[in-house]
Amino acid sequence: MNQHDPNDTLCTGPWAVDGLSRRDFLNRVGLGMGGIALAQLVGTDTASATTFKAPHFAPRAKRIIYLFQSGGPSQLDLFDYKPMLNKRNGEELPDSVRQGQRLTGMSAHQSSLPMAGSIFDFQQHGESGAWVSDLMPHTAKIVDELCIIKSMYTEAINHDPAITFFQTGSQIAGRPSLGSWLSYGLGTENDNLPAYVALVTKGKGGQPLYSRLWGSGFLPSEHQGVQFRSGADPVLYLNNPGGIGAESRRMLLDKLADLHSLQSDAGNAMDARIAQYEMAFRMQTSVPEVTDFSDEPGMLMEAYGPDVHDPGSYAANCLLARRLIERDVRCVQLFHRGWDQHGGLPKAIKTQCTETDQPTAALIRDLKQRGLLEETLVVWGGEFGRTNYSQGTLTETDYGRDHHPRCFTVWMAGGGVKAGTTYGVTDEFGYNIVENGVHVHDFHATLLHLLGIDHERLTFPYKGRQFRITDVHGKVVKALLA
Known about the structure:
Elements: H1 22-42, E1 63-69, H2 83-87, H3 95-98, E2 122-125, E3 130-133, H4 137-140, E4 146-153, H5 159-168, H6 178-186, E5 196-200, E6 226-228, H7 246-261, H8 268-290, H9 298-303, H10 314-326, E7 331-336, H11 345-369, E8 376-381, E9 385-386, E10 403-404, E11 408-414, E12 421-423, E13 425-426, E14 433-435, E15 438-439, H12 440-450, E16 460-462, E17 465-467
Parallel strand pairs: 1-7, 1-8, 4-12, 4-15, 5-6, 5-7
Antiparallel strand pairs: 2-3, 4-11, 8-11, 9-10, 13-14, 16-17
Helix pairs in contact: 1-8, 7-8, 10-11
């Protein structure tokens, strides 16, 4: 006896269609809806490819440039001036200061933990009177634009979990990155460039930087960051293969869309893939234009320093970041390695500052002169700080510093932050926070708030619960807001 398939029942009632089974009816409706969605993705005349989403409330910033200094810059040699360390240079770190806190395996077995004062001179600058060492003369001139946080702290003491924590809100790999959350939450206002771009300084050694740091995790893949590289092909696999022209590629994408329209059960994964193919097609024109600096004035190029002429350098990436956000790219992250100075710190940190100080300051000035700083949030900082004691041998001219998650410095500029402000206080030894600590989750909550997002409402369902970048923690630090 044949079993009756309820799906083959003819439609009845007000939605009845003569001669159609329920399966046929649902398939036709599904194809129609899929066609509407596909039209939005491929940017036909009947639908815009722009996917701007309204923020939760009026944003103070529309976009973000994150200057990530990978390795952990020494706050004690750059921003957090501690005369006590110079006064007691070479003395053993008091137990009352360390308080039994965890050390890395690299210095935990040292017979001594001698405190190391900075050999660099500090002075106060600007109307705000912020302390900056002589390693950063250009940054010193823009301190009144900065909101300096001296009381950042994190939970991770080793690089990979610490970097992952700052990028994704979790020490465990696999979560969406900050830029991906912004792309998902706010969408894009540019049809021809990604919402999220990652730039890595070329030729720099140091801790590895994995593409998952700008990945989309469990969010739809169109929200992942796109890495721009130096060289003739800034984006891998963007150019057409030999013998394939733009017309042929356009025809291929059209046929792919037609084929997808026949697969009503393909789902969001295929939609996302087609959206990426379409973006790649449009980027064939937009990427060469945005990476071509020939239209930039000579004096401006000079302001960024000599390295700006070298594609892929930190200076060139700073200028490229400005050109990208000028074209409404939502998030640009620069990754600059080399700050992991366990030994030979004085020489190594000079190199790092020579590479980054002038371009960073030039970027802030450039944005301000163009009227972009008010709506662009700029962030500078690494994954943790450095210890107040020397790792390895301490001499009059040389020392190293181990990882220190308990207190370190980051700064923000533009985008609704309180300029000319120094927030948070560390103890006289630069080892612990004594006032206004800012956790990584608090930092993320504040960044999202400046961009018009309530961090508790920006969620995504995954594995049976709602996830967010601040997990179940985080508070907006209102004292940092203008």
